[in-house]
Structures are given as C-alpha cells and as structure tokens.
Specification:
The complex is a heterodimer of chains A (307) and B (342).
Chain A (H helix, E strand, L loop, with lengths): L1 E10 L2 E11 L4 E5 L6 H8 L7 E6 L2 E2 L4 H7 E4 L11 H11 L4 H14 L15 H12 L6 E5 L7 H16 L3 E5 L3 H7 L2 E6 L2 E7 H8 L3 E7 L3 H10 L3 E7 L2 E6 L3 H13 L4 E6 L3 H11 L3
Parallel strand pairs in A: 3-8, 3-9, 6-7, 7-8
Antiparallel strand pairs in A: 1-2, 1-4, 4-5, 9-10, 11-13, 11-14, 12-13
Helix pairs in contact in A: 3-4, 8-11
Chain B lengths: L2 H6 L2 H11 L3 H30 L5 H29 L4 H5 L3 H5 L5 H27 L2 H4 L4 H28 L3 H25 L2 E3 L18 H9 L8 E3 L11 E5 L5 E7 L6 E2 L20 H23 L7 H9 L1
Parallel strand pairs in B: 1-2
Antiparallel strand pairs in B: 3-4, 4-5
C-alpha cells in the first residue's frame, strides 16, 4: 500500500533523510519510531505530497507522490503533528468544510460529519466552536477530519503527543477500530509501549537513516539478543539461580527487586522448558512471566549506535 | 451546479463568509466606513448647501454637486486602499501561521481554488462596502451636476482598483510566510499604485513639443493610479497641467508654468508666463484636451479605460504569480518532464 524507496531529503548541507526505504502492506499499522529530528515528520510530509524529496520515490496505493499528488490526496488522510483550527466554526461545520474540500456531495456531508463525530466520540460537541475544544478533543476532531473522504491510508504524525493518559487510551481505541475497518495506518510516536500494543509493523529511524523495519517481533528479535523472563520463587533464590545458570538456553541471570530476571534464547517452548526444569529441581515458583518492553530495548539499541 | 459555478463557488468562500460575518469586526468595519464617508459627505454638504442656495441662479449648485462627488469618490478610494490590503494580506499567511494550510493542501482543492476562494470572500466584503456607500452618493443628486454614467464609471474604477489592491495583497500573502511583512508590502504596493504612479508623473513628466497646440498626455505609468480617472470622471474635464513640461527651450518648465482655472462644465482657461532662454517673454500655452487621452500608448482611450486595463493586467500577473508560489510542491511543466525522463 505504501512504498518508500531510497528517499533522500537534504536542506543545504544537512541531510534530513538518507536513502530511507520501507514498505507497508495493506491493512497494517506501521509504527514509525525515532528521536526528535530523526526524519519522521519529513518522511510523512513527503508521503502526504507536501514536501518534495531530493531523490527517491514514494508511492501511496500505487500513486507517485510527485507525479500524481491529486491521486495521493484522494487516497490518504493526513494528520500533522501540529495543526490549528479555524475560529467561528462548530465541530460539524468544520468537518462539513473539509468534506466539501474533498468534493463530497452536499447531501452526503451531513451524514459523514455525524458518523465521524460518533466514531471519535464527539457527537455531543457537534455544535461547540472548535477553537474552544481541549487539545485531546481537537486531536480527535482532526483525526475525524482526516477521514472525511474515507481514505485507504492514514498518516498520523504524533497523534498522541500532548494528550493525558485517558485521551491516549481513547485515541488508541479509535485507531484499533480503524484497523478493523481495514485502513492502512502509519503512525509516528514517541510512546513505545503504545506502539508495541497497537502496531503490526515498525520502523526505527534515527538521524535520517532507517535502522530497522519489519513486523514488530522480528525487529525486536533482530535488535535484541534474547527474551526476558521474570520469575518469583518462595525462598530458594540462590538454588533457583543455580538451576537457571546450568540451563543451556539461559544467557544471563540477575536479581531485580526480589525477583529473578533471566534472559534466554529461544521461543515459548524454551520458556516452558525453563519452568519445567525449575519445578523438577523442587523450586516453588510463585510467578513466571515474559517481560514486555522489548521494543524499548530495540529502540535504544538501534538509536545508540552512532551516538 | 454546473462546472463554472463549482469553479467560482468553493468551500473556502462559504467558510470565510461564516468566519468573517460571525465576528464583531465586520459590522464595526462597516459602521466606521459609513461614518467616515457619511461624515465627509455631511461636512461638505452642510458647508456648501447654504452657498448653493444663495447663488442658485448662477449654475453653481451643479459645481457644488461635482465637488461633493469628487471628494466622495476620492475619499472612498483612499478608504478602500486602507481596507483592502488588510483583508487579503493575511489570507494565506495567516493560514500558515495557524498551521491550517497543510490541511487544505492535502484536500482535492487545487491551489488556484484556495486563492480564488480567499479573493472572492475578501472582495465580496469590499463590494458590500461599495453598496453601502450608494445612499451617501445619492446626496450628490440633490445638487445635480453629475450624471448616472459618471457615478457608474467612478464605481467601476474604484472597484477595479480595490480588486487590484486585493490581488496584490493576496500575492504578498502568498510570497511572505508571515502576515506582518505581507501586510507591510501590500500597503507599500497600494501606496505605489495610488500615489507613487502620480509622483512619477511629477518627476518624469512628458515633454511638450514646442510646436504643439494641444497638451500631450502624462506618462502612461501615471494611468495606473485610479486618482487620475476619478478626477477626470468627477470633474468631467481634462487633466490639466499635470505630468507635462516644456522642454529645454524654456527655463521654467514644471507643469508648463501655466496658471489654469476650470470653469463650469469642464471649460478651461489657461495663461502662461515663462522665461524663454535668457529673456522674459510670453508664451502661448498648449491647450488641454478633452476627457480622452491625447497621446501616447493609450491615445484616444478614456482615462478610466486605460487605468482599469493596466490594473487588470497587473491583477492577472499577480494572480498567476500567486498560483505558482502557493503549492507546497511547485510542479512547473519542464521540471515534471525532467523528472519523468530521469
């Protein structure tokens, strides 16, 4: 659905993007991760046909962003990281205006506005002036705006930035619903745990270069050497550690906050084998869990190479 | 709606109307406009009404009507020269400052439609102001001395000048990222259009052929200013002693060194005292022509025709420049071809 091939953007001597390439198949949620100034917004603006690349190609649903920006605009909804709203317009008028800008027929615009306000949970604010909405509500309204022409692709630049935890959760729920509607979504964010839960694919960008891209678990596995377990036992910590260290799949064992954390190499079957070995040795295991947050490790590893 | 209606009427216009007319600024601007124009009309009316009553049989009432009309059209032009750049100079740059312009660029509206919508919305307000001034202009007909066609021509010249200032303001708004420099440059352009072109006529006047009996036209640049045609329409007489001078034959040349007075119905009488070379002598001055341009590029045209033609050309150029500058990615035809070949 989205193809980015060797995308380069330079501003004078500064290279903002350096041969960035990735692909996002239809129906995927692609998380675009990177520190500030890494090139996320530049890439998204090029994909939205708002910025001309110095070299390389970007295609949205087969349409080249430079050759056919009109087709690109037809097929994608774009939500920038910073945006303003017009004064003196209500939420429904705001959506009606953008629906008209997308040449939606007048008879359909009201229904589109009502449906989208319902989707983003703003039905009760339809007659409120948009400039009086809170930041979280404006973000939701802007997301609704990006959907007025029912695009196949959504580009969301930091949609959760500046939102309180509740608003973030609500935004995430909306995005999940959009995923079930079959939209292909590219979302840039700093909030890694959210991306882990939401995204099916990920791209890590730093200093204009793509460090890793692919399905989330593949990228984590590619960048981190193993998976981690947290094991709580009743007493017998030393014995448990000794049993673990003797296992060939275990790479590292450490005591963290009264629990044992073990890094191991392998899949879920390997984890089951570790639990079996512990119980066979007579260790009373009270808790045994996989540690999440592998994306954070992957991100730190990918972005620390050149620092 | 047919295609033309769709092209002319776009969502930007409706949105701008809503935004503009829902604030207190628009009614306030209209009120101030009417108060200023009406105040001037009332002041001139009251100061001349008694004089007109006292000397009615001398045909002077018509002159008072003419004077009132001239003052009103000139003052209206100056007012609009202040208002119009303010309406359009922020049209695009304020969208940039509010970070709403990208949201427009990703829609199906072409850049020209965005410009057209902004222009139409701003110029509609100017047209509303012009319409509001019609009752004030009706005062003139109490005195007489002004025909309907003069009023229509004066309104046409004023409207086209306002349109030109509006489009120049829009071009400034497109060229500059911020509203402040866009506004300053739009007012600079308005000053050049109204006063700068007239100043050009004073600094670089047309030289009079010593053998000519009729006065030549001022330089064509001076027709850019709507002031010249408005004066011609208002007085129904020729431009007299402006933008022309005698050549090097004479020591005193500026303005032809003439003293002229205009009588009723545009009848002019002039006399000149000049110093030819080393001595002092009388010179039989050239006579001003009628309301048509006597010579030069627009020879035989009415002043107002030359002015609106030049202004419409400027407007067209400014509009094209704006349409080229506005899109985030400027896709000039030869650049597109080069890219495809590459």
């Amino acid at each position: 659905m989205i193809t980015v091939d060797g995308l380069t953007k330079t501003y004078g001597n500064r290279t903002a993007l350096d041969h960035v390439s990735f692909e996002v198949p239809k129906g995927e949620i692609f998380g675009f991760v990177g520190p500030n100034g890494a090139g996320k917004t530049t890439t998204l603006r090029i994909l939205a046909a708002l910025l001309e690349p110095t070299s390389g190609r970007a295609l949205v649903d087969g349409a080249d962003v430079i050759e056919h920006p009109d087709k690109v605009h037809e097929r994608l909804g774009y939500m920038p990281d910073f945006f303003g709203v017009y004064d003196q317009l209500t939420a429904s008028e705001y959506l009606d205006f953008y629906a008209a800008c997308y040449r939606q027929p007048k008879a359909r615009r009201k229904k589109v506005a009502d449906d989208l306000l319902e989707l983003v949970g703003l039905s009760d604010r339809r007659d409120q002036a948009v400039d009086t909405l809170s930041r979280g509500l404006k973000q939701r309204l802007c997301l609704a705006r990006a959907l007025v022409h029912d695009p196949a692709v959504l580009l969301l630049d930091e949609p959760a930035s500046g939102l309180d935890p509740r608003a973030r959760v609500e935004m995430r729920e909306i995005l999940k619903e959009l995923q079930t509607m079959g939209k292909t979504i590219v979302i840039s964010s700093h909030i890694l745990p959210e991306l882990t839960e939401l995204c099916t694919m990920i791209g890590i960008i730093d200093q204009g270069r793509m460090r890793a891209t692919g399905p989330v678990q593949d990228v984590i596995r590619q960048l981190t050497s193993g998976r981690r377990l947290r094991i709580s036992v009743l007493g017998q910590k030393e014995e448990a550690a000794a049993v673990l260290k003797a296992l060939p799949t275990i790479q590292e064992v450490a005591m963290v906050n009264g629990a044992i954390e073990a890094q191991y190499d392998g899949d879920d079957a390997a984890a089951a084998g570790i639990l079996q070995a512990l119980t066979a040795a007579g260790i009373k295991v009270s808790a045994f869990s996989q540690l999440e947050g592998g994306l954070e490790d992957a991100f730190m590893k990918a972005t620390s190479e050149d620092v | 709606m047919n295609r033309i209606a769709v092209a002319l009427w776009n969502p930007i216009v409706a949105k701008e109307y809503r935004s503009r007319m829902r604030t207190w600024r628009s009614p306030l601007a209209m009120t101030i406009y009417i108060l200023l124009l009406g105040g001037l009309g009332w002041a001139i009316f009251s100061s001349t009404a008694s004089a007109a009553r006292n000397s009615f049989n001398g045909g002077l009432a018509a002159n008072y009507g003419q004077a009132l009309f001239l003052w009103l059209v000139l003052f209206q032009m100056v007012l609009l020269a202040f208002i119009t750049p303010a309406l359009t100079a922020g049209a695009v740059s304020s969208e940039r400052e509010r970070q709403t312009i990208d949201l427009l660029f990703v829609t199906k509206l072409p850049a020209f439609s965005i410009l057209w919508g902004k222009l139409l919305a701003s110029m509609s307000f100017v047209m509303l102001l012009l319409l509001l001034s019609v009752p004030i202009f009706s005062l003139v007909f109490l005195f007489g001395g002004i025909e309907l066609d003069q009023v229509l021509k004066a309104f046409l010249v004023t409207a086209v000048a306002a349109l030109t200032l509006g489009i120049i303001g829009l071009a400034c708004s497109t060229a500059f990222k911020r509203t402040l420099p866009a506004t300053v440059s739009a007012y600079g352009a308005a000053f050049v259009l109204l006063a700068g072109s007239l100043l050009f006529g004073l600094l670089f006047p047309t030289e009079i052929n010593p053998n000519a009996t009729k006065a030549p036209a001022p330089p064509a640049v001076t027709f850019l200013s709507p002031i010249l045609p408005l004066v011609v329409i208002g007085t129904n007489g020729p431009i007299n002693g402006y933008g022309i001078r005698y050549g090097n034959t004479f020591a005193i040349a500026q303005g032809g060194g003439m003293s002229c007075s205009s009588g009723p119905n545009g009848v002019q009488s002039c006399s000149g005292l000049v110093a030819p070379g080393k001595g002092i002598g009388f010179y039989n001055p050239v006579q001003p022509s009628g309301t048509t341009i006597p010579s030069g590029l627009f020879s035989g045209w009415q002043y107002w025709q030359a002015t609106i033609t030049m202004q419409l050309v400027i407007s067209l150029v400014a509009l094209i420049v704006s349409a080229v500058l506005l899109p985030p990615i400027r896709r000039l035809p030869w650049r597109r071809r080069a890219r495809v070949v590459a």
